[in-house]
Amino acid sequence: MTRPGIPLEIYQQYGNWRRVRDWEGTTGWIFGPLLSGRRTGIVAPWTKNNVALRNKPAIDGRITAWLEPRVRVKLTWCDGTWCAVALGDASGFVKQTDLWGVYPDEVL
């Protein structure tokens, strides 16, 4: 867990320590102050198919790019169905179920 910006799920805590899991299932303890509150996501690491980046949060939104699986994106907000994401100069909307790093129905 040495790559900055990779989303981690915190699933246990003890004092200032957090037990975390990454999208590959690797777990470990991290000193809490070393963690950032900035949210990121990983595009569909469970598939080989690209995921559509759309210009609006709707299935009829125009596809502006195709994101490869396991690409890290910054999460701006999520409404429980769609997430606004950014990757370099590109930004748009991805179905929340196509991201690891945000729970289904979670609102950010």
Any descriptors?
DUF1058, mainly beta, 108 residues, SH3b domain-containing protein, three-stranded antiparallel beta sheet
Helix content: under 10%
Output the CATH topology of the largest domain: SH3 type barrels
End-to-end C-alpha gap: 24 Å
CATH architecture of the largest domain: Roll
Q: Determine Rg (CA atoms, Å).
A: 14 Å
Strand order of the largest sheet: 9-8-7-4-10
Number of β-strand runs: 10
**String of helices and strands:** EEEEEEEEEE
| Shape assignment | elongated
Structural class: mainly beta
Low-pLDDT stretches are none
Q: Biggest sheet, open or closed, and with what strands and sense?
A: 5 strands, antiparallel
- Tell me the number of structural domains: 2
Give the CATH superfamily of the largest domain: SH3 Domains
Give the CATH class of the largest domain.
Answer: Mainly Beta
Average pLDDT rating: 94
Summarize the structure.
The chain is an all-beta fold.
Explain this structure.
By secondary structure, the chain is mainly beta. It has 2 domains: 9-37, no CATH class; 41-100, SH3 Domains (SH3 type barrels). Helix content is 0%, strand content 46%. It contains no helices and 10 strands. The strands form 3 sheets. The protein has a 5-stranded antiparallel beta sheet with strand order 9-8-7-4-10, with no helix packed on it. A 3-stranded antiparallel beta sheet has the order 1-2-3, with no helix packed on it. A hairpin with an 8-residue loop joins β5 and β6. The chain is elongated. The chain starts with 8 loop residues before the first strand and ends in an 8-residue tail after the last strand. It comes from Mesorhizobium plurifarium.
